[in-house]
Amino acid sequence: MKQGFDSELYMQKQKEQILKRISQFGKLYLEFGGKLFDDLHAARVLPGFDKAAKIKLLTSLKDEAELIICISAGDIERNKIRADYGITYGTEVARMIDNISNQGISINSVVITMFEDQQSAIAYKSKLENRGIKVFLHRKTKGYPHDVDTIVSDFGYGANPYIPTTKPLVVVSAPGPGSGKLATCLSQVYHENKRGVNASYAKFETFPIWNLPLLHPVNLAYEAATADLLDVNQIDTFHYDAYGIMAVNYNRDLEAFPVLKAILTKISSSNVVYKSPTDMGVNMAGYCIYDDDAVCEAAKQEIIRRYLKGLVDFKNGLANEKTVLRLEFLMSKLSLKVEDRVVVTAAREKEAKKGKPSMAIELEDGRIIRGKGSDNMSASAACVFNAVKVLADIPKSVKLISPDIIAPINRLKKNILKDKDKALNLEEALLALTICANADPTAKLALKQLNSLNNLQAHSTCILKEADEEALRKLGINLTSDPKFSSNDLYSD
Fold first, then answer.
1. What phi, psi does 278 have (nearest 5°)?
2. Do the strands 248-250 and 233-235 form a parallel or antiparallel pair, or are they unpaired?
3. Three-class SS state of 160
4. What is the pLDDT of residue 278?
5. How many domains does the chain have?
6. What is the extent of the structural domain holding 448?
7. Distance between CA atoms of 178 and 234, rounded to whole angstroms?
8. Is the pTM of this model over 0.70?
9. Same domain as 195, residue 49
């Protein structure tokens, strides 16, 4: 993919802005929106963006920073899933703690927000505390959002326990949106100021990018990513009134700003420097785009990807019709169709020709590789194997896995494990390839090409089984699927 974003410049500019805010206030509670690490959405829509940029930035500030992680009690109760990795928010918090700690960044605590005595949240709290993690419980803020006098009192933010912090920068992050980051920040700012500490708030949010046009594909891609939340990008009228400059923000921030400004003013008992929601941000991403055409194309592809995912989620009962209609509307804004994603047409043509579920992968150089399902392998396994053959210059006719290995695995799955589908899924096929690589130089050569599949685009003509989807995710392949089941079975083991 053609690059269009300077990630090093981005980290430099972000660091400068954060240090500037700290110097303004003395102590800064910084709400980190989006993914703290593995920011795959940003990496997809801003080609060149380092998905680890945020954690690298924090690592450079580790002497000044500590981290609070928020998770909503409701998300624990519902076992809410982080879609790009297929894990629950609760598991993602644990993953965040491990990865962040390994970078030498201080983890202060976990806050379970919007707590209403849910037993699952209580159990989760105990689980973390048993591993030495400090956990605080925050209930819904009394009086929020309109009764500022109650919010900024011992009955509002003051009812939350104070979280002792020692660093000038306190980063407040979460596994996903709606986790209570803002309320946690403001609660802490209240407690700090009550203790005589000059503390304030700022927001680190990559999208929407405030100094890109309202209808820029990157900003529309953000709307696609948050279609289930019904987020809408709007002109920041507060910013325009204050400075005469057009800036883009999103509806929830714009709606909340008057109340947020009133809260911060009452907490600090002084004039707040923020005149707009855009003022609150430290977002410098727009200054780091050097090829707008490349970024626009990547963002359009992301919107198509989100639309296809929305259709699959709707088919699986995981999304409502409003979300799908919202995604269709965004597609129409840019006159996009699913066939603009080249792997879609390639996979469908393969299925039409062979009459079997099929998959297509687009290589870095633009070549399209196809594969179909068979009695021996799933379509995803066949397609990945065909791709590594091409990358390793292995003739198409060469079998990477000996039939003497495939056959007994098929029999095991069918006769012993009672699997309805005896064909090897992608993970099983890769394990078999690894075994073959011990004695077969060709298989070993193919195995070495797996890392070359990272960040490639793929499309399946049917909804994949979980094992295949998970294996593709681990390989770093960006998958979309047609909203069609591979069989009429309601249950597949």
1. -65, -35
2. antiparallel
3. coil
4. 95
5. 2
6. 350-481
7. 20
8. yes
9. yes
Separation CA 181–CA 228 (nearest Å): 19
pLDDT < 70 stretches in the chain = 83-84, 269-272, 487-493
- Is there a contact between 121 and 77 (Cβ–Cβ < 8 Å)? yes
Question: Which residues have C-beta within 8 Å of that of residue 200, sequence separation ≥ 6?
Answer: 21, 24, 25, 27, 28, 29, 189, 264, 268
Domain annotation covers residue 293: no
CATH of the domain at 387: 3.40.140.40
Q: Which residues have C-beta within 8 Å of that of residue 123, sequence separation ≥ 6? A: none
Query: Which helix (H) or strand (E) element contains residue 306?
Result: helix 292-315
CA distance 169 to 30: 7
Q: What is the pLDDT of residues 302-361, one digit of tens each?
A: 999 999 999 999 999 988 999 999 999 999 999 999 999 999 999 999 999 999 999 999
How does pLDDT run across 180-207, given as a tens digit for each residue? 999 999 999 999 999 999 899 999 989 9
Chain position carrying tokens 């469908």? 348
The answer to whether residues 149 and 275 belong to one domain is yes
Name the domain boundary from 241, 263, 288. Answer: 288
Among the listed residues 65, 20, 27, 19, the one whose alpha carbon sits nearest the alpha carbon of residue 197: 27
